[in-house]
Each structure stands twice: as C-alpha cells, then as structure tokens.
Write a structure and sequence with these properties.
By secondary structure, the protein is an alpha+beta fold. The chain folds into four domains: 77 residues, Sandwich (Immunoglobulin-like); 197 residues, Rossmann fold (3-Layer(aba) Sandwich); 89 residues, Carboxypeptidase-like, regulatory domain (Immunoglobulin-like); 87 residues, Immunoglobulin-like, CATH 2.60.40. The chain contains ten helices and 33 strands. The protein is globular, with a radius of gyration of 25 Å.
Length: 601
C-alpha cells in the first residue's frame, strides 16, 4: 500500500508543478526586434535574443509576463502556453504620434443649475484639448493583460466618481474600411479566427425603402438557402439598411447554394430582386407598403465589474451617466429607454446582475452609480453570460428605431467550446433581434479579444470603440489593428454614435446637395468638381483651396467619413462603401459646397 501512496503523491506533485513553455517576440514601433528586452514572471526571467524572441518556462496554462526595455513603456501581457505572440512596445517619446485628435460637432448639453435636468444649447464647435504624451498617468496599471488591481478586494465604484469628459476613445468602423478589414482579419488577426469560430467574410448588404425613398426601418430580413433554411437573419437599421452573412460560423457553409434575400412586413414576405455578395453591390427593394416612422430607442449598458476594471470604472460610471442624460436631451423625438447589466465571472459573488429597461433614465443612472468592482482574478471573464442576460432577460421592444448594446470590458471571454458556442448563438440572436453590439474596450484587452469583438460588431451591424492612452487614465490601452483613427472624448463619441444609429426622419424626408448648402445660412455657397461620376471607387475633387474637409454622407445625412484636405486637387476613395448614391460636403471656414456621387461596382 505504501509504494502506491508514494507513487500517487509523486504523480500529484508533478502535475501541480508541471512546467509549460511561454514564448513570443518583442518589437519596437517600427516592427524591428528589440534585443535584450527583459521578460519576467515572479522569480523567473529571461531576455530577448538577437531576433527579439524569448522562451520562458513556468507552471500553468497562462502567465502574466512583465516586459521592460530602456526608453519604452513597461507592459504586462497575458501569454498562453503553446501560443507564440508578437508584442509591440511603445516608445515613451513617440507615444501615439500617428493618431489625429479631432472634434465632432456634437450639440453641447449644459446643466441647468435651477433644475435637475439638462438643457440643449446651440451647436458650438470646439477642439479637444491637446493631450500631452508626457502627461502624468493616473491610476497607472500594467496592460495589455490584467491590470494590477485584478485581484483587488471589493472597491467602491461611484463613491469615487470622477467628472465626466475625461476618458478618451477612438472608433474603428470596419464597414467603412471593408477592404482593409478583409486583409486584417485574414492576415494580422488570422490566428484568432478559428479560436472564436466567427468569420465575418461573406457580406450581403441590403437597403429597403418605402415608396418615395424613405428608409424602411426595423424590417425583418432573412438570407435563405435553396431549401428555405435561414442562413442569417437581421433587421434594418434607422437608415433602412441591414447586413447579413453567409458562413459566419463556418466559412465553407452554403458555398454552392443559391441564396435568396427576403424581407417580411406585417406578416407578408417580399423577395428582393437580387441576392448578391457585397462585392457585386447593394441589394435594394422598395416595399409596397405605407411609410411608418419609428422613434423607439432602447439602450443597454453591459459592463465588466471585475477587479481589473478598478482603474477606470469610477470614470466610466460618470461617463455613462453623462451619456444617458445628454442622449435624453438630444434625442427629443425619441421614446428612449435604458437598462444596465453588470457582470463578473463564474467564481465571483455574482455572474450577472441587471436592471430592466426603464423610461425614467434616472433609474438607470442611479443603478450605474451604485455599482462596485471586485472579483475576477484570471484574464477571461463571463462575457458570454453577460450577453445572454442582456439579450434574453432584458425586455427589448418588438419594434424600435434602434436597439443598442454598449459592451464595456477589458478582457475577452473564456475560450472553451461551450462559451464559444454561446457567443456564436448570442451574435446571431442579437442580429435577429436588431440589437447592435458596440464594444467599448478598456485597458487590458488582448488581440484575440479585439478580433472577437470586431467580429461581433460586424455580425450585429455595430461598431468597435476603444479607450486610448491620451487621457492618462488607467493602464496601457490596446491600439486597434487598423491604418488610422481619430481620438475623441468618450462621452462625446458615445452620444455621436447613439444619434447616428438612432435618429430617424419624417416619412418622405430626403436630403440633397441643395438642402445641405441652403440650410446653413452662416456659410457662403461655393462650387467644386467631383469626378468621375458615377465612379467605381476613386473620386477626384477640385477645390478652390488646399484646406478644409470633405464629409462623405449617405442620402439621409448619416456621416460615413471625414477627410482632411491638403491639396486643391485630391483623390478620395469610396471603395469600402456599398454601391449607391452618396453626398460629398466640402467645408473650409465659412465656405460650403456639396456634390452628389453615384458609386457603382
């Protein structure tokens, strides 16, 4: 018996202290290898070799490594056994030089000191303050990976609330840079595709209108196979558009099938005349039913409340409260409701807790303000459970102009099969219900999470939002894999996105180039050329000055792109947009002009 016990305890001790290999490579901002960068985990440590690569033995399936190199920002990164990764370190003197800080013309909302409400002032443009890259960090913690507060005890959230308007953020809308996303998803982020088993590749874009051209909002649309099976289901947004997908969970599915797009209104089905891939153009249909305007807006805030959010959650509490109040003031015609879900992980005091949709926004503000952070400990959190709670337990309205789900988090979900399947199901359910999922990524996110969240945003017709280092608040924030982005204040960005996704117009309203110019009496009307027209993508504009900006809008005034002008003759590429009609609006000081452009494929 004794020899058996000895063998048992020997085997147990070996399993407990089994060593795994963790490897990767470290580069500078130019992707050149950093030789001699220090890598450490507890008492274990190593340095990068002549190729900038390292290998470290440690126990467990994942470890939090600390990276340091003279002149560069120290980082902590979660690394998984058997998965090599490349880590780009940031030079302290050149932090985010390529990022453009801009402002958006959001109507300012000021507190009326004599009441408890907000009043809307006239629209006043104003640039963001110039954020210094040498600015002292507040609550500095290590990322990307888990912040140092990941194992913190319960800590107050709103009790330490900060003034709103301090966090900075950017947006990467992959619908607007579709060709770039196709390259990124299959090259830079390709290693994560099979981990999450989400493949937003084969896109089918739909535009539905009522007679007269008004957008058909919140109409059910299905992409069906040859046997009538549903490949993907969605609803049109406030612009009458929907995005559907073939092979979202399996890129080889239905490759040879004859697909059909079908819209359903009041129980009656209408087949679209075309059902072709996005590269072949937009699938359009004018529905033979009377126009009906939607004004209902449901917004849910789903927030990670684990300990690692401690460096930013007190700020986020103030930002979310400010966004709710400003949205209530700005969307005057909207029937607005808000709700909130807070989540942690399976081993914590709770996994999810929520407050149901309420028309009185003060209820949501009060609920958000009393939340605290705590728990967590490992890197992944219960993101899938949070989405399930938000999509199934929250009572979204059957009809609405928009349904928005802001997912605020700093870590991806667990990668086991059950969680991956649930994420797939929730992405498909959100699309079917017409719920746009809009991630807001905080310090600590990793590249695998970036791919997942951008894929979920695409699958639900949402957009990807991320905090940036410009505020000096929190740990290091993950830069998205993209060519460029603008930096805004987070609360301004969220209000802009809500308005962009929620505003609807009266039936029959459509803007044109004349209304764009004549509506602004403070501007002097000017003419400029834009050719070729129609175009397959590139458009050359000839302008009176080598300054100003060109805004690309759809035919209902939705801002799609903002392009700075640096030459009187400049080429603009519309290639990432769907086929259709767009408006180019040129502004330079007190000068204003507009041109209609037809994009073909």
């Amino acid at each position: 018996m004794r020899p058996l016990l000895i063998l048992f305890y020997t085997a147990l001790s070996l399993s407990l202290f089994a060593q795994s290999t963790f490897s990767g490579c470290v580069t500078d901002e130019l992707d050149e290898p950093l030789i001699g960068a220090a890598i450490s985990h507890g008492a274990a440590g190593t340095v990068t070799d002549v190729d900038g690569c390292f290998s470290l033995e440690a126990s467990g399936d994942s470890v939090l490594l600390k990276l340091s190199y003279t002149g560069y920002v120290e980082q902590k990164v979660m690394v998984y056994a058997g998965k090599s990764l490349t880590i780009q370190m940031v030079n302290k003197t050149e932090l985010l030089e390529e990022v453009v800080v801009t402002e958006y013309r959001v109507p300012l909302v000021e507190m009326d000191r004599t009441t408890t409400g907000y009043t809307v002032t006239d629209e006043v443009p104003g640039p963001l303050p110039a954020y210094s890259t040498s600015r002292k960090r507040e609550h500095a913690s290590a990322s990307p990976g888990r912040s140092e507060s990941a194992f913190a005890d319960e800590a107050p959230g709103a009790s330490a609330a900060q003034a709103a308007g301090q966090l900075t953020a950017g947006e990467s809308n992959d619908f607007g840079k579709w060709d770039l996303w196709e390259d990124i998803s299959k090259e830079d982020l390709a290693e994560f595709r099979d981990i999450w088993q989400l493949y937003p590749d084969n896109r089918y874009a739909v535009q539905l209108t009522y007679p007269g051209g008004s957008p058909a909002v919140d109409v059910e649309v299905e992409l069906r196979d040859g046997q009538g099976g549903i490949v993907w289901a969605a609803r049109t947004d406030n612009q009458g558009r929907s995005e559907l997908w073939r092979g979202m969970m399996n890129p080889k599915a239905n490759e040879q099938a004859q697909l059909q797009l079908v819209a359903s209104v009041f129980g009656k089905e209408y087949a679209l005349p075309t059902s072709h891939h996005f590269k072949m153009g937009l699938n359009t249909l004018e529905l033979p039913v009377p126009c009906e305007r939607r004004t209902e807006v449901d917004i849910a805030f789903v927030v990670d409340a684990t300990g690692s959010m401690g460096d930013e959650i007190s700020y986020l509490s103030s930002e979310l409260s400010d966004v709710i109040l400003r949205t209530q003031a700005n969307l005057k015609d909207a029937d607005l409701r808000t709700a909130a879900v807070f989540y942690r992980d399976s081993t914590d005091a709770y996994v999810t807790q929520h407050q149901q949709f309420a028309s009185d926004y003060a209820e949501t503000v009060a609920y958000v303000n009393k939340q605290t952070h705590g728990g967590g400990g490992d890197h992944p959190e219960a993101v899938d459970a949070a989405l399930e709670t938000a999509l199934i337990q929250l009572e979204w309205r059957e009809t609405a102009a928009s349904r928005l789900l802001f997912l605020v988090l700093d870590a991806p979900p667990h990668q086991d099969a059950d969680n991956v399947n649930r994420l797939q199901e929730m992405t498909a359910l959100a699309a079917k219900q017409g719920v746009r999922i809009i991630p807001i990524v905080c310090s600590g996110m990793t590249k695998d999470g970036e791919y997942l969240l951008r894929s979920i945003a695409l699958g639900t017709n949402g957009t990807y939002v991320f905090l940036t280092d410009d505020s000096g608040i929190g740990g290091t924030h993950l830069k998205p894999t993209t060519d460029s982005y603008d930096v805004e204040k987070l609360n301004d960005l969220m209000v802009r996105v809500i308005r962009q996704f929620s505003e609807t117009q009266e039936c029959g309203a459509e803007i044109n180039e004349n209304s764009l110019v004549k509506a602004d009496q403070t501007k002097v009307e000017i003419k400029f050329r834009a050719y070729p027209n129609p175009t397959s993508g590139p458009v050359t504009v000839k302008l009176p000055e080598s300054s100003g900006e060109v805004f690309v809008l759809d035919m209902l005034g939705k801002l799609l792109r903002r392009i700075p002008i640096n030459a009187r003759k400049q080429t603009i590429d519309l290639g990432g947009l769907a086929s259709g009609t767009y408006l180019l609006r040129y502004e330079d000081g007190d000068k204003l002009g507009a041109q209609r452009i037809v994009l073909t494929r």
